[in-house]
Amino acid sequence: MVVTVDPEKFALAAVIGWPIMHSRSPLMHNFWMKQLGISGRYLPIAIKPGKVVDALRALPGLGFSGCNVTIPHKMVAKDSVDDVDDAADKMGAISCVVVREDSSLFGTNNDWIGFLRNLEYSLPKFVLKDRYVTVMGAGGAARAVCYGLIKSQVKKITVVNQTLNKSKLLQRLYGDIICVRSWENRNAALEGSSLIVNATSLGMVGMRDHDIPIEAIDQNAVVYDIVYTPSETNLIRRASVNGNPTCTGLGMLLHQGPVAWKHWFGIEPLVTNELYDLVRRNLEAEYGPGKTIV
Ligand code: ATR
Predict the structure, then answer these.
(1) Same domain, 93 and 176
(2) pTM of structure
(3) DSSP 8-state secondary structure symbol assigned to residue 16
(4) How far is the CA of 116 from the centre of ligand 1 (A)?
(5) Residues enclosing ligand 1, CB less than 6 A?
(6) Is-contact 221 244, C-beta < 8 A?
(7) 293 Cβ partners below 8 Å, 6+ apart?
């Protein structure tokens, strides 16, 4: 791989959020810095709500190539940069800021690309075009997932969410490709789906688990859980035991990284098994292999 990062400059990027110290992004990005022999650092920067504009505007002067943006700043950051792309505009949120030559700030949202690339990488034979998909959840993550699915020309996306109005918002945003079912009918919505995505926080450490009847879904259906704390959720474990192909949230997190690097440094590092295991082990050290409150 040809490294085009300016050797005269200490490469700098960051993730801003509040809180931020739980983020695994520094582990991933600094792994690449070291692997590629780049003199630089990726920093976790805790930015309080209300300070996002100040933080972003300081990036060019401090020599940062850009930053990732995480909870709770994704929407405010979108309104604080100079330009955004179509994905960010549609989602109303950004996950990545790029400092341009003239010091202006460009905002983009890589969440949907990470979602798709992880699927392609984990299950290369799986084709999304013309598929029926069920997405559980209708928050920011679901918005990114649906954007990616629509870009991939799926046939229909059934959205089930605890708060019905949020599903309807998604439908208004993306149109009739989104079909809304009530949370109470979530199990029926799984029928006939080739891909089932958990974009809720259920299954996360400290949250209760999903109660979906894995045994009742099509064995060929891909189960994709975007939760990565723990690195293997009970939903993923149950799906694997049932014989379903699976895709993890950790993979989605990792696959966003190279997209950001391309913007910041002009190169795309690789998501390898070594990197996956490094971050998985680090998550397991903190959260255990699958410790959830059921
Ligand atoms: P994110 O940016 O990660 O998507 P979010 O926008 O807060 O975070 O969305 C969280 C999602 O998890 C929502 O779909 C939320 O459902 P509501 O819209 O009804 O709040 C879902 N969620 C959170 N706790 C839940 C629970 N206990 N049961 C079911 N869904 C839950």
Answers:
(1) no
(2) 0.95
(3) E
(4) 21
(5) 137-142, 161-163, 166, 200-202
(6) yes
(7) 206, 207, 208
